[in-house]
Queue: 3 jobs
Job 1
Amino acid sequence: MSAAVSQKEEVFCIQNAVTFETVASIQKDVIHLMHHNPHLVGYTLSFENISEVNSAALGLLVELKKYTIARKKEIKILNLPDRLLSLAQVCGVADWLGLRSA
């Protein structure tokens, strides 16, 4: 199953799977949306309706965080799967990414 990225108002939504097979396409699509919304003070990324996630998703979050820092913007993550939050905590990047447990 492939991933899909869409925009709902000021939120960029990722659906389906975030895996090694889909992450490059997702990153490209999210950065495209960020680039075409420079008026936003920050970006909100929602992991809604995720069917599958692996460590590639953590790499995606790190790259998107770097992208926003370079543009002096903030990024907020919504609906993060518990598995991904746990991985970020184990890797020591949860606080830097602004991730909190529910």
Note: Residues 4-97 form a domain with the Transcription Regulator spoIIAA fold (CATH 3.30.750.24).
Job 2
Amino acid sequence: MDYAVVRTGGKQYRVSPGARVTAQVVEHTRRKKILVFKMKRRKNERRKRGHRQNTTTLRVLEIVG
């Protein structure tokens, strides 16, 4: 049996031939900013960083099983 390993979302998946999906890319944007704030108490140590994740919106047009 033939299969492939696909990595997406930080995880790996083993996939084999099956359904076929046709999709259309709607937009490429960036998500809302996430603030990462770290603080150590009684040490006057603070660290603040911002992070924006890239995101793609897809519209599924057809699923052929």
Note: The mean pLDDT is 93.
Job 3
Amino acid sequence: MMLWSMRWNSLFSRSKLTLIKWRSMRRKVWFRVLDRVERAIVNLTIGCVERVHSPKLERIISTIVNKLTNAMKSMLEKLTEDIGRPLAQKLSRIAWNWGNKSAVQWAEDYVFIQYLTVMQMDVLRIFKT
């Protein structure tokens, strides 16, 4: 009985989908990123079910939510993932190999990753001028 209740513990409820829809509309990505069918799927899901139980519907909703969350990320957040995180991991490995055992934490320190991203953006801006 416990496995069955864990299986149907869905990631998407009406309240979560409503919040995602509201945020994406506030950031003006709802109509820009989603086509009519995707918007209809989310609206029908919000209106018809309290919690998503179908694995197929959950996959579809997950794809739509990923599109929305990626579109709502700021440029700094995107660059942080693309530039800052790999750079922090590389610096962390180098410092750890040199004997700095606390350097392992650098790869997951979000403030350090943002710092590296901003510094890298500044370096790129210097070479463009």
Note: Residues 64 and 72 are 13 Å apart (CA to CA).
